[in-house]
Every structure is written in structure tokens, then in C-alpha cells.
Design brief:
Layout: H1 12-22, H2 34-39, H3 44-56, E1 76-82, H4 86-97, E2 102-107, E3 118-124, H5 127-141, E4 146-150
Antiparallel strand pairs: 1-3, 1-4, 2-3
Amino acid sequence: MSDDEDLPPVDRELLRKQLSVLQDPLELVSEPYAAYAEKLETSQEEIFGLLCEYLQRKIIRRIAGVLKHNRAGFTVNAMVAMKIPNDECDRAGEELAAFPFITHCYRRTAYPDWQYTLYAMVHAKSKEEFGEHLAEIRQVTGSHEISVFSSLKEYKKTAFRIDSP
């Protein structure tokens, strides 16, 4: 029995309307969910219930803040690709994902002409700090091959958006 078998079926039109509102950024105010409640003509308690249900049903994966790294002073950003053996990849990935300077960490399939299996987006406030982060990454991953792909320019950074019905 799956987790959502006890839940009523989803009204897709209502779901789309709710998600089109719930995807908006939360404001830094004492009651950030009040704006959602007002837009959806309901209570904050109902909003919390919706979010819990959508998490349980896996309609949404998480509720998270988005850091604007450049505004926060992180000026050195790079994708670090690592050649990690398959039997070490999960352990290394879990350890890397715990570092606060890593915002994305992914395992990917290796190919004969591209053997990289683990990728991490690393952010630092200086080149020196980035070097320190690389040293920590090397310590966690061992002496496996690492390639750094630095960001030169950001062209677009937007989240997927659901249009309101």
C-alpha cells in the first residue's frame, strides 16, 4: 500500500492553481505563509496541510530557500567533476553533499570517453577559499581525478514555473 492510497484523489485544476501560488518566493516577514493563504482564500493552517499532503504524495520534493550566491558574496563558482569508482560513489557523494559550500551534488553514468561519475557545484568567496574547498573534496574522494569547470558568466537562472489556470 502506498503512502497516498488513504488520501482523496487530486483535483488537477485546483492543484495547478494552488501550486502556481505556492511556487512564489516566501517573503521575510513574521507570517510568510499568510500571503499564500490570502491568494488562495484560505487559512495558513490549510496551507500547512496542503504542503504536508503534497510532500507526502511526492507532488513536491521539498520546501527550501534559494541562495543568490553572488549577492551573498560568493564570487568563485565552479562545477567540479570527479572520476570516482562506482563502489565509492555513493559514500563520496553523501559526504560531499554535507559540505555547506556545495549546493548541488549529482551522480551520473560514466561513458567510455567521459569517465566522470560525481559532480558538485562549489561556491567560494575567493580563489584561495576555493582552493581550500578543493583540498577538502580531494580528502573525501581520495586521489581520484578531478576537473574544475569554472563559471565565466551566468546567462539565466530561473526556476521552473507553473502557470496559473
